[in-house]
């Protein structure tokens, strides 16, 4: 049994400024369930990519598109809610508890990795210092004098450790952008390599220096210097593997959103599938327009209405043969439904007409509202006859004159769930503060922007699921297809290798650019 959610929608903010109250509607909403794979022949591997828990989520607060919405939705329905009542089922409770368990496990995994990296880093930086100080502490009197050579080596070790510390901070100490489902292979390889190097140096130091109490202090200091040099080379190797290797484009990926077919192309280097998925998600929030499920409602309702247009009954009983008559009736109904393209044409034409009309009203209302605001110069502030206001007060003063036109336009274009009254006031005060024109203010509402433009509580996804037939730690290859799923839609990624390009050169002699002007012998006078 699917869960239901009854939402009582009110638009109290707009109604307060415009002076018009809207009747609240109760609408039944069906939760969209993520499709389950039914194809047993394909061995798909599904893993998850989870963003840091401190950031808010997408799918939970986004409004769902109703299946049975009427055609006058843009005229009668509001979606910015003031109060809401929710009912939840056992399936939702189980899903929420599973998400909490997954988040706890991911947090533990992330903190464990950070702990191991911190302990290993501390060991790496303290080891050369320990190599130099232990002989001074344990058998100081037996050491041979070193003099100026050791002092120069001390300075070299100090500066090399400082350079290594700065480089390690720049390369590894970064805010994590996401929790990947599998370990990063190159990073794990570097950790193992560093551990083996330090362990080998400690083993040799314990056998050859500590046990025998070597008195050649200059050789001990040079041994520590050699460890620092090896660590610097490993840091250079880390830069090559983690940063430089992926810079050269080798693959072109096509990303398609499953619901509306919007697509983008990106160039990627040598990356694993999970890291390529992370790059795709970062570019998705920047390049793709915000996902609006309300735009898909009209086509769904129209298809459902046409599918329910015919019913065939057998009144003579199941034993009689009426299949021929039934087929004739179905064919006749199909011919009648062939004219549905006319209905679609007139619906879209009417919608475009209403959008243009309300867009024109909104532009005029905003331009008239902005004419009432004038920035006072410094010398005019003392003698200004009118009341002086800060940008917030000015935005609140002119907002009522444009509120109704803006509200109707957002409803018609089905964008009202992405713009609250508070966000509109903040944007309006921002435009007033920076002396922006009405066209600059309207740009956010006339054209759907990228996902990052809107309130993070409404768009940011808690969890993405990566579905791939190949191991997610394997590198990209030509023809690989993987899918990134969230609660409402999925991103289908198709990988193509950039072809090998062969260029040839052709030399053109500059002296060959000579021309002759041919004139006719007989010319008109």
Automatic annotation (TrEMBL):
Residues 1-10, 74-86 have a biased composition (Polar residues). The gene is Vangl1. Keywords: Cell membrane, Membrane, Transmembrane, Transmembrane helix. GO terms for cellular component: plasma membrane. Residues 1-86 are annotated as: Disordered. InterPro entries: VANGL. The chain crosses the membrane at residues 111-133, 153-172, 184-204, 224-244. This is VANG1 protein. It comes from Anthoscopus minutus. Belongs to the Vang family. Residues 36-45 have a biased composition (Basic and acidic residues). Residues 19-35 have a biased composition (Basic residues). It holds the Pfam family Strabismus. It is found in: Cell membrane. It is a multi-pass membrane protein. The keyword Secreted does not apply.
């Amino acid at each position: 049994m699917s869960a239901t959610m009854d939402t009582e929608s009110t638009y109290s903010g707009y109604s307060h400024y415009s002076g018009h109250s809207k009747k609240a509607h109760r609408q039944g909403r069906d939760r969209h369930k993520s499709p389950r794979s039914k194809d047993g022949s394909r061995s798909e591997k599904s893993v998850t990519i989870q963003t840091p828990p401190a950031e808010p989520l997408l799918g939970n607060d986004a409004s769902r598109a109703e299946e049975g919405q009427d055609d006058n939705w843009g005229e009668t329905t509001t979606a910015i809610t003031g109060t809401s009542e929710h009912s939840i089922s056992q399936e939702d409770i189980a899903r929420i508890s599973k998400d909490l368990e997954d988040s706890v496990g991911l947090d533990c995994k992330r903190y464990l990795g950070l702990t191991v990296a911190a302990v290993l880093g501390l060991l790496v930086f303290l080891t050369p210092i320990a190599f130099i100080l232990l002989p001074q502490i344990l058998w100081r009197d037996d050491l041979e004098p070193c003099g100026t050579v050791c002092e120069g080596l001390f300075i070299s070790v100090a500066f090399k450790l400082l350079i290594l510390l700065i480089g390690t901070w720049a390369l590894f100490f970064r805010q994590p952008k996401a929790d990947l489902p599998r370990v990063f292979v190159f990073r794990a390889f570097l950790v193992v390599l560093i551990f083996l190097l330090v362990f080998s140096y400690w083993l040799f130091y314990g056998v050859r220096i500590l046990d025998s109490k070597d008195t050649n202090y200059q050789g001990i200091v040079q041994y520590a210097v050699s460890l620092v040099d090896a660590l610097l080379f490993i840091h250079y190797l880390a830069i090559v593997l983690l940063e430089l290797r992926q810079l050269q484009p080798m693959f072109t990926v096509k990303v398609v959103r499953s619901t509306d077919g919007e697509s983008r192309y990106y160039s990627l280097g040598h990356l694993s599938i999970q890291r390529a998925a992370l790059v795709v998600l970062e570019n998705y929030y920047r390049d793709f327009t915000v996902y609006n499920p309300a735009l898909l409602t009209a086509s769904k309702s129209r298809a459902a209405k046409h599918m329910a247009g015919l019913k065939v009954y057998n009144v003579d009983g199941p034993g009689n043969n009426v299949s021929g008559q039934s087929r004739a009736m179905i064919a006749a109904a199909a011919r009648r439904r062939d004219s549905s393209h006319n209905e679609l044409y007139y619906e879209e034409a009417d919608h475009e007409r209403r959008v243009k009309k309300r867009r024109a009203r909104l532009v005029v209302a905003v331009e008239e509202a902005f004419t009432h605001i004038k920035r006072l110069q410094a010398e005019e502030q003392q003698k200004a006859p009118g009341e002086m206001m800060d940008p917030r007060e000015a935005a609140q003063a002119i907002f009522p004159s444009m509120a109704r036109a803006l509200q109707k336009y957002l409803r018609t274009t089905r964008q009202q769930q992405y713009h609250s009254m508070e966000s509109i006031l903040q944007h309006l005060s921002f435009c007033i503060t920076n002396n922006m024109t009405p066209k600059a203010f309207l740009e956010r509402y006339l054209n759907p922007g990228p996902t990052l433009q809107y309130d993070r509580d409404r768009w940011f996804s808690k969890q993405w699921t990566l579905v791939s037939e190949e191991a997610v730690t394997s590198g990209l290859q030509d023809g690989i297809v993987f899918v990134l799923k969230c609660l409402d839609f999925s991103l289908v990624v198709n990988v193509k290798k950039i072809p090998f390009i062969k260029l040839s050169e052709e030399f053109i002699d500059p002296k060959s650019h000579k021309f002759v002007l041919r004139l006719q012998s007989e010319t008109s006078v």
